[in-house]
Amino acid sequence: MNELHRLRALLFLGPILFAYSTVAQHRAAPCFVSFDFESIDQFSGWGIGHLVETQTPQGEGLGEIVPAWEIANAAMANADGYFPVPDVPLGNSFVQANDAASPCNCDMVDVDLTTPSFDLSGRSGVGLEFRAFHEGILGSGPAFVEARSGTNEWMVLDTIPPHPGAWQNVLMDLSDFDGLTEVFIRFRWSDGGGWASGFAMDDFCLRERTSNDLSITRVVIGDPSVQAFNASVQTMPYRQLPVEQAVGVRASVEVVNLGTSAAQVDELGVELYWNGMVVEDFMVSGPGELQPGQRAMVPVTSTWVPTGPGRLIITGKVPIGTSDDDESDNRAQAEISYTAAGWDAGYGAMSVDNDHVEGRIGGTGNFTVSNRMEIMNNGSMARGVSFMLATTTNVGEEIRGILMDANYTFRDTTTRHVITDEDMANTWNGQPLYLSFSTTPALPLGDHFVGIQHLETGEEGNVEIALGGEAPLGGSVLLEGLVFDVTYLRTAPLVRLHVAELGVGLTEQDLSFSDMNVYPSPMSRSGTIKFQVPHNGPVRLEIFASDGRPVHNDLMAGPAGERMATIDVSNLASGLYRVRAKGQAWISQGSFVVVH
Questions:
Q1: Which partner from 24, 87, 94, 407 sits 20 to 30 angstroms from 73, CA to CA?
Q2: Contacts of 137 (CB under 8 A, 6+ apart)
Q3: What pLDDT sits at residue 22?
Q4: pTM reported for the whole predicted model
């Protein structure tokens, strides 16, 4: 295995889609054709093109002829780490052409996948929608989508642009085929003759579009048009930001024209909700004319800053009065917490991860994984670093926290920490660990990196850090070896800077614990969770499988007192699950068993 492939195996074990945004509602108009590939029956009638030969990693043919396309899940795709398909939603299945997954290692030059025949007679304004995972790296060729009627020549609808690290939502115009009785759609991808991972497609949908239909598809914290390397602005997609580092709001709203007619988008609406109250409601300049299927990112800035800790929701919306035949998808939102001392506010935490464990990174060697922190106001002190280990980490390994400047020069470290059985028990319970910096250094203006370093001791012990959330280029890094070889990550490590003591989850006396009532147990279809909340305000309800994998995450608002949640377990595998509710300096815990 060459060095580039080795790095891919280490790096990309769990990205996600649109980690820092809330996607708009599904459109009201139904799909008249849909495939979600959750069962092999969904693949019936599809043409899989030519077969391919399995090979050794050295490219030697093994004589076994196999299909290029198959139904798969993230675990199958990521078998060797070379095709990091995000598991979104959890347990999702899709169709893939994967030239790197064992035992294939196949040569997939210009492989194609063709739908069954569709009858579009009586249909108008037909649009094709699907999700694609297409990295377009390591020599991979382009990905095309084509269509034809009957036995006519194939017509290219469009190419699918590469987007490393995340699923992308794709919309293509199929209206040229309105009214035809025999229409086929074909997906084509090539590995370029090299070992170049693969192409995945999911949630295929044909629907009739209306003439006028604008959609706000997502809101993103930060400004993705500005590189993370720019130290003069704060553009990272923070999920948590200390109050003392707030310098105004920067976000981006994505708008797409789902209609069949061109749309003039001169303005978009923006609302800022601070702890449930509207603090600003204003308009921003739109992208102008959008052709059918065209999308645009619209920057949003505001001088509003919080005066204390709390939660800010940024909502983007299509303005009232806009000609729109489907208003169900005219709003989307994103959330950021402004933190200070205290459990609910995260002890002055600064983080870009999405608080969901969706992958891991690390190994047995000397390495550091870290995130960029943009310090815009003087006065903050680096108190410590919190982080989530992966459950594959070995007890007895040594780690330490590191604070570096933008050039990866050490500014301070924590003391060395030997991972204990208690640490791993906390990891299995979804609790972060915390290490204090030795000198509590001041944080001057500019960019800094905060990370966790594995200190190689000569043994073959393993340390891995949890990943969760899409990271902008330059925002998260892996530093390897004594000379610090730098590789930028597209998935954010769950590593956070703290500017207020103490760190989360340090001692039980910092928290109030209570048991919750979970019934029935065992469950087969649904169940009920009841617990007492000692304060007003939001509580986060989380459910974890026995391996620590999150299967449910929700924010519940309400007053102090008893709260109740009904959970659907029909799609969960049989086994033991742990449930946890977290609020202000308070945790309630329970468990239940699912039996089908």
A1: 24
A2: 162, 164, 196, 197
A3: 35
A4: 0.71
